[in-house]
Design goal:
The mean pLDDT is about 85. The chain is elongated and about 105 Å long. It is built from three helices and no strands. The protein folds into two domains: about 50 residues, no CATH class; about 45 residues. With about 110 residues, it is mainly alpha-helical.
């Protein structure tokens, strides 16, 4: 025999149905946190560290290659500086030419 609930008291099945996703999320969070703090999580972290180290290690371990790359970068910087100077010169020449044309038209 089921008795009617007094006014203002929510149905227990409704409350459980609404709270279930939140309780599940909390349990999943606690479980994932436990795994990451366990030796399994430490092993995963070490594997990730090792993989990222080996990906970038060859560049840092070969000083001749690093020196060659630095030389190439230096040469490229010089070429860019030279091109910037030429561009500035060309812009000044064009501006001068425009000023002469405007002055001749008056």
């Amino acid at each position: 025999m089921q008795f009617p609930l007094p006014p203002g008291v929510p149905d227990l099945n409704y409350v459980i149905h609404q709270l279930t996703p939140f309780v599940a999320m909390i349990l999943v969070f606690v479980g994932v946190r436990w795994v990451f703090r366990s030796p399994v999580g430490e092993a995963l972290a070490e594997r990730i560290r090792h993989r990222s180290h080996t990906r970038w290690a060859p560049l840092g371990e070969d000083p001749q290659r690093v020196a060659a790359l630095e030389e190439q970068v230096s040469q490229l910087q010089g070429q860019i500086a030279e091109l910037a100077e030429r561009l500035d010169f060309a812009e000044r020449m064009l501006a001068e030419r425009r000023e002469r044309k405007l002055g001749a038209g008056q």
